Amino acid sequence: MATFVISRRLSDDFKFEFVSRRGKTILTSDSYELRYECEEDIEIMKKALPEAVFMKFRTSSGKFYFRLIIGKKEYATSRKYTTQLLMQKGIDEIMRSMEISEVLDFSSNEFAFPEIEFQD
Q1: What is the total count of domains within the chain?
Q2: Tens digit of each residue's pLDDT (9 = 90 or more) over 83-96
Q3: Could you tell me the pTM of the whole model?
Q4: How does strand 3-8 pair with strand 14-19?
Q5: Is residue 22 part of a domain?
Q6: What letters, b where the CB count within 10 A reaches 16 and e where it falls short, cover 53-82?
Q7: Where are the beta strands (DSSP E) in the chain?
Q8: 12: domain range?
Q9: Is residue 46 in a domain?
C-alpha cells in the first residue's frame, strides 16, 4: 500500500511525499513551517480526493509530470515520468490508495538504531 512520509528539508522545513508500494516517490509537497500544517494538508487531500484536479505538464526535455490541485490550492507536484502512460499509472495509484494510506513521520532526528561507537 502507498504511504505518506513526512520528513524535513535541508532548510529544516517539513514536507511530505506520497510513496508507492514499491518505494517510488509519486508526489512531493511544498515546504511547511510546522509539522501539523503538513498533517492537515494530508488529511484534506485524503478527504477531498474525488474533487482533485491533476494538471499535466511536459518539461522542455520531454518528461511528463503533474500537479495535484484541490479547490484553488496546489498541494503537491509529481516526480518526472518518461512517458504519459507511466504518469497516468502514478495518477491511478493515487486514486486507488491515497484515501486508505497511512502516514509515517520521519521528521524527528531520533534514529531507530543507536550510533555505534568504534574503539581503537
Answers
A1: 1
A2: 999 999 999 999 99
A3: 0.83
A4: antiparallel
A5: yes
A6: eeeeeeeeeeebbbebebeeeebbbbbebe
A7: 3-8, 14-19, 25-29, 53-58, 64-70, 73-78, 102-105
A8: 3-105
A9: yes
Contact 41, 32 (CB under 8 A): yes
Q: What angle do CA 67, 105, 42 make, to 5 degrees?
A: 35
Task: Find out whether 15 and 61 touch, Cβ atoms under 8 Å.
Answer: no
Q: Which residues contact 20 (CB under 8 A, 6 or more apart)?
A: 2, 26, 90, 93
58 occurs within a structural domain? yes
List the CATH number of the domain containing 98.
Answer: 2.30.29.80
Q: Look at residue 114 and tell me if it is in a domain.
A: no
Residue pLDDT, tens place only, 104-115: 888 886 555 556
Distances (CA, A) of 12 to 1, 15, 34, 35, 42: 28, 10, 10, 11, 19
